[in-house]
C-alpha cells in the first residue's frame, strides 16, 4: 500500500510509563456504497485491520469497517516496557499491508 | 380652449418631455450600476474571526492536535517531496532552499504575490509549479494533485501562527481591485455576492450551518465534506456552485485576484494551515 | 437468542430484587425488540450475555456537524492487569449500514483502556460503546448524537 502515515509517540519515556500513541493513515476508506458520475458503484476499499507490535509482541490491534472515517485516526495506549521497536501495520481488504517502524527509547 | 391655455399646455408637455429625457439619460447608468453592486458593510478589523471559531469544540481540538489532524498527512507528504529530486538529474526543493523550517518560514504569509519578472499574480501553487518547470526541469503538478496539495500544505505549515501579510502596492493594486470587485458583485442564479454572506451575515445560520467570514487562514484545509485535504480554489469553486454561478478553473485569474483580496481582507490574521473545516 | 436474553433479564431481576431492577440497563429496557439494529449488534457481540451500563465513558459530541467524521474517545475503568483487564472495546451504531463499526483489541500491555478514533455516522442516532472484560463480562455506555449537514452540499 503506497500511502503516507503519521505516528505521534512521546520522544522520551520512562520505564513503566503508560504512553499514548496517535496514528493516522491517508486512506479513502471507500465504503462501496458510493456511485461515480457515470452511476457505477465505486468498489469498497478499506483498511480492515491495524496492529501494533512492540518488540515482537502484539500490544494493540483494531478491526475496522467502512464505518470508520476516511484517513483513519487511531489512538491507543501502551506501557513503555523496554527500548526497541514498535511496528505498525495497516492491512486493507485487498490484502495489501503498509508498515511503519518507530524506534522507542525507554530510560 | 383659449390661446393662453394652449400655450400653457404646450409648455407643460415640453417641460414633461424634458423631464423624462433628463431622467432617463442622467440616471439609467446610475440605476444599472446600483442594481449590479451592493454597498457592503465591510468587516471591521477587530471583529474578524477565523473559521476555527465557528467549529465545534471537538473539531477545534482535533485541528490543534497534530497527532489527530488528518491534514498533517499531507504535510508529511510535502515534507518527503521537499527532499525528493523530481528526476534523475533535477534539484529537489531542498537543493536550493535547504531546511524548509527556516527557509519557508513566513513565505506563505506573503502569498499571493506578483512575480517580479513576469508581472503575473501567483499563489503558492503556481509558484511551486513555476519552480518545477523553470528551475527543476520537471513537469508541473496538476492542481489538486496529492503532490501539489502536499507541498502547499507543507510550505504553508511553516508559517503556522504567523500573520498574513500580502503586498498590495504597485502592480498588485489592480489585482486587489479586481478581487474586491469580484467579492462585491452579485453572481449566479441565486444572484448573491460573497459580501452578502461573509460580511453582512456571518455568524447567522444557513440551514444547520453557521456562516463564517470566509477567511483564507487555514488553507489548504481538511474539509470533512471532501473527506480529504483541498485548496482554496477548490473551496471557491464550491462557493460558485453554491450560488449557481459559473464554476471557474483552478488557477483562474478571477480566483487568483479574489485570493489576493481575501488575503488582504485577512491581513494580520494568523495562518492555521492545515485547518479542519466542515 | 432473543428469548435467552429476555430470560436472563428475568432471572437477574428475580435474583437481585429491587436493586437489580434499578440497575437494569435503560437501553434494553426501552429497546427490547431484538430486531432493533443496536440490540442485534449487541447480541452478536455478547452472545446473549448480560450487559451492565457503566464503567464505560463514551465521549462524543452531542451534535456532529458532518456525518463523514465524528471524533470519539472511549475510556473504561479497569486496572488493566493480566487478571483483570479490558479485552476489547466495540463501537456499535443504531442506523449505519454496518452496525459493528470498529473493534479495538486491548491487552494487559495497553496500560490504560482508552481509545480514540473518528467514525462515520449515516444519520442522527444512538452510538454504543461496549467493553468486553477478561472475565467475560460486558459493560456499556451510550450517547445520542444529532448529525447535521453543511449548508451547501459540495459537488466538487
Written description of the protein model:
- The complex is a heterotrimer of chains A (107), B (278) and C (156).
- Chain A is an all-beta fold.
- Chain A has strands spanning 5-8, 18-25, 47-54, 57-64, 73-79, 84-92, 97-104.
- Chain A has one domain (5-104): Immunoglobulin-like.
- In chain A, the strands form 2 sheets. A 4-stranded antiparallel beta sheet of chain A has the order 4-3-6-7, with no helix packed on it. In chain A, strands 1-2-5 form a 3-stranded antiparallel beta sheet, with no helix packed on it.
- Chain B is mainly alpha-helical and 278 residues long.
- Chain B has helices spanning 3-36, 57-64, 72-82, 93-97, 100-103, 124-135, 146-157, 172-183, 194-198, 232-242, 253-265; strands at residues 113-114, 121-122, 205-206, 209-210, 221-223, 228-230, 276-277.
- In chain B, the strands form 3 sheets. Chain B has a 3-stranded mixed beta sheet.
- The longest helix of chain B is centred in the first third of the chain and has 34 residues, at 3-36.
- Mean pLDDT of chain C is 82; it is low at 1-35.
- Chain C has a single domain (2-147), classed as SoxY domain (Immunoglobulin-like).
- In chain C, strand 5 (86-93) and strand 6 form a beta hairpin.
- Chain C has helices at residues 2-23, 26-30, 37-46; strands at residues 51-53, 56-59, 63-64, 70-76, 86-93, 100-106, 114-119, 125-133, 138-147.
- Chains in contact: A-B, A-C, B-C.
- The interface between A and C is medium-sized, with 30 and 29 residues.
- Strand 5 of chain A pairs antiparallel with strand 7 (114-119) of chain C, so a sheet runs across the interface.
Amino acid at each position: 500500500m503506497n500511502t503516507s502515515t503519521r505516528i505521534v509517540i512521546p520522544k522520551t519515556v520512562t520505564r513503566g510509563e503508560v504512553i499514548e500513541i496517535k496514528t493516522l493513515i491517508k486512506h479513502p476508506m471507500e465504503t462501496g456504497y458510493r456511485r461515480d458520475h457515470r452511476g457505477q458503484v465505486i468498489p469498497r476499499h478499506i483498511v480492515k485491520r491495524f496492529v501494533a507490535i512492540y518488540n515482537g509482541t502484539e500490544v494493540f490491534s483494531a478491526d475496522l469497517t467502512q464505518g470508520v472515517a476516511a484517513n483513519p485516526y487511531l489512538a491507543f495506549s501502551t506501557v513503555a516496557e523496554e527500548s526497541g521497536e514498535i511496528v505498525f501495520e495497516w492491512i486493507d481488504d485487498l490484502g495489501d499491508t503498509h508498515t511503519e517502524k518507530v524506534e522507542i527509547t525507554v530510560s | 380652449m383659449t390661446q393662453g391655455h394652449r400655450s400653457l399646455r404646450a409648455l407643460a408637455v415640453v417641460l414633461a418631455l424634458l423631464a423624462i429625457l433628463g431622467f432617463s439619460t442622467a440616471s439609467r447608468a446610475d440605476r444599472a450600476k446600483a442594481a449590479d453592486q451592493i454597498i457592503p458593510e465591510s468587516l471591521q478589523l477587530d471583529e474578524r474571526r477565523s473559521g476555527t471559531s465557528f467549529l465545534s469544540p471537538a473539531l477545534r481540538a482535533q485541528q490543534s492536535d497534530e497527532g489527530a489532524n488528518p491534514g498533517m498527512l499531507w504535510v508529511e507528504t510535502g515534507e518527503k517531496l521537499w527532499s525528493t529530486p523530481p528526476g534523475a538529474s533535477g534539484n529537489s526543493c531542498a537543493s536550493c532552499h535547504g531546511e524548509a523550517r527556516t527557509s519557508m518560514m513566513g513565505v506563505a504569509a506573503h502569498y499571493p504575490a506578483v512575480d517580479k519578472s513576469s508581472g503575473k499574480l501567483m499563489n503558492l501553487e503556481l509558484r511551486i509549479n513555476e519552480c518545477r518547470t523553470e528551475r527543476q526541469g520537471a513537469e508541473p503538478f496538476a492542481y489538486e494533485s496529492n503532490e501539489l496539495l502536499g507541498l502547499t500544505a507543507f510550505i504553508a505549515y511553516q508559517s503556522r501562527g504567523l500573520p498574513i501579510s500580502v503586498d498590495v502596492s504597485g502592480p498588485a493594486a489592480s489585482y486587489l481591485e479586481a478581487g474586491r470587485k469580484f467579492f462585491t458583485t452579485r453572481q449566479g442564479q441565486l444572484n448573491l455576492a460573497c459580501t452578502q454572506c461573509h460580511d453582512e451575515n456571518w455568524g447567522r445560520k444557513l440551514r444547520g450551518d453557521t456562516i463564517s467570514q470566509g477567511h483564507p487562514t487555514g488553507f489548504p484545509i481538511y474539509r470533512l465534506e471532501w473527506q480529504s485535504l483541498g485548496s482554496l480554489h477548490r473551496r471557491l469553486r464550491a462557493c460558485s456552485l453554491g450560488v449557481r454561478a459559473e464554476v471557474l478553473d483552478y488557477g483562474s485569474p478571477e480566483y487568483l485576484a479574489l485570493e489576493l483580496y481575501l488575503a488582504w481582507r485577512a491581513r494580520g490574521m494568523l495562518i492555521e494551515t492545515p485547518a479542519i473545516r466542515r | 437468542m432473543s428469548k435467552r436474553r429476555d430470560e436472563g433479564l428475568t432471572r437477574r431481576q428475580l435474583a437481585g430484587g429491587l436493586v437489580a431492577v434499578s440497575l437494569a440497563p435503560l437501553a434494553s429496557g426501552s429497546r427490547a425488540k431484538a430486531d432493533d439494529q443496536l440490540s442485534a449488534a449487541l447480541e452478536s457481540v455478547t452472545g446473549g450475555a448480560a450487559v451492565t451500563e457503566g464503567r464505560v465513558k463514551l465521549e462524543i459530541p452531542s451534535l456532529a456537524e458532518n456525518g463523514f467524521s465524528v471524533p470519539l474517545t472511549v475510556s473504561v475503568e479497569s486496572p488493566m492487569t493480566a487478571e483483570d483487564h479490558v479485552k476489547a472495546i466495540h463501537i456499535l451504531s443504531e442506523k449505519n449500514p454496518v452496525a459493528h463499526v470498529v473493534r479495538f483489541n486491548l491487552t494487559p500491555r495497553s496500560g490504560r483502556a482508552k481509545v480514540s478514533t473518528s467514525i462515520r455516522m449515516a444519520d442522527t442516532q444512538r452510538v454504543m460503546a461496549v467493553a468486553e472484560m477478561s472475565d467475560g463480562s460486558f459493560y456499556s455506555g451510550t450517547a445520542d448524537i444529532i448529525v447535521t449537514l453543511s449548508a451547501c452540499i459540495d459537488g466538487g
